[in-house]
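Side project, low priority. Logging it here so it doesn't get lost.
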Amino acid sequence: QVQLVESGGGLVQPGGSLRLSCATSGFIFSINDMGWYRQAPGKQRELVASISTHGTVNYVDSVRGRFTISRHGSSLSLQMNSLKPEDTAVYYCNRGAFSGRYSYPFDAWGQGTQVVVYP
């Protein structure tokens, strides 16, 4: 059974940093491309960043240069720097197929981790 468990969210002031983690189980992590998504209140879930099995990364324009996605063992991380109020959302990880800003997530969503950037 696939499990995706996100953690690391919290409250932070603009300009601050957070590091999100995604612990995975139930599938072979090393052969799957992975991504971080977020869903802000009243908005659709969007892909934020993806990383291939070979380490090729891709970011949505709004976070490029501020966020860094990485993978280690069976875990996925998202280092978020220079946070802005518009980064406020619930963040999720998933494995899937990724092409630029398009993605097809493979699994049911975990509970996510809440990030709130307050002025």
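Brief comment: The chain is about 0% helix and 55% strand.
Revisit when time allows.
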